[in-house]
Every structure is written in structure tokens, then in C-alpha cells.
Amino acid sequence: MTDNQIHPAAARLAPGAGAADVLVASSAMPASFRELRQDAAPGAVRQLFGGAPARAGQPEPELSGTGFTYRHDWGTRRGQWVLRLNWDVVQPPSRVLVAIGEGVPGGPPAGKFIGAARYTLHNVASRWNGVDIWVDIEWSSDISLYADYLIINP
User: Fold this and answer.
1) What pLDDT, in 10s, does the model give residues 27-80?
2) In angstroms, what is the C-alpha Rg of the chain?
3) Which residue from 18, 27, 79, 98 has the highest number of Cβ atoms inside 10 Å of its Cβ?
4) What is the C-alpha separation between 44 and 35, in angstroms, rounded?
């Protein structure tokens, strides 16, 4: 069975909002949806960094080098966008992983949540001094878009 609840973030007021202010636009989860939870298979997990005994503390060769993480607030959006983030640590050979989602009011440190809007990430492309992503947000009004970037430079 599922826990069909509206995420608490969907009921928060915008920062500085008073009693007369309205709730921040959100795609809070509707009545019913299907959910599946599974445990990770411990034998299939591969540690990338740190002191894994089987690898004598050596990281996976494909992911060794310098790494960076960053959460970017792309503002309120809907529809399809190509978003170009300028960042001098990214180069064409960089490994770039991106996760997008609806942002909790309060800025990137407040986190993200799963609402009813569909956030789709179509493509990710590293380039000299930046990374470009193509996203699609299926919702009837503009809602927040946060993107998490993981950069690994071999």
C-alpha cells in the first residue's frame, strides 16, 4: 500500500509571507498513485571512494579524480528548456550527473520533494566551462526547478 499524503513543503508559505499572503505555487501530490519500495542488493553495490576492503581503498578508475557537487535554483519554470550552467570546473571530458526536481520554498538548502508535476531530464552535455541540460516540466503554471549536479573530472 502507499502513503498518499501531501508533502509538508507544499503547504509552506513563501519566505517573509504573512497571514494575508498565499501559498507558494506547488504541485502537491494528488489523491492516488502507485508506489514501489525495494532494498538495494548489497552484493551489487560498488563503493566509489573510501576504504573498500576489496579494492584496498582505491576508487573505481572511471570515477577517480576531482569531484564537485552543486544544487542550482533555476527559478520557476514550465515546459521545455535548455538550461546552460557556466561553471569553470566542467570540461568536455567531465562526467556530469544531474538530478532535477521541484524545490521546497526557502531556497536550495531547503531541499526538493516529489509532487504531481512531471520533471523530465532529457539530455546532459558537458562543454568547455559549463554543462547544458534539456528539461521538461509538465505543469499548468510555473513551479520551482532545482538541479543537483555531480561533476567528476578524471
Assistant:
1) 766 666 677 778 877 776 666 665 555 545 555 565 556 788 999 999 999 999
2) 19
3) 27
4) 23
Structure confidence by residue, pLDDT tens digits, 103-127: 999 999 999 999 999 999 999 999 9
Cβ(77)–Cβ(117) below 8 Å: no
The DSSP secondary-structure symbol of 103 reads E
Helices (H), 5-147: none
Query: How are beta strands 95-103 and 79-86 bridged, if at all?
Result: unpaired
**Sequence-distant (≥ 6) Cβ neighbours of residue 153 within 8 angstroms:** 65, 66, 67, 89, 91, 93, 94, 95
3-state helix, strand, coil in the chain (%, to 5): 10, 40, 50
Residue 82: which region, alpha, beta or left (left: phi > 0; alpha: psi -120 to 50)? beta
- Retrieve residue 139's grid coordinates: 505543469
Q: pTM to 2 decimals?
A: 0.68
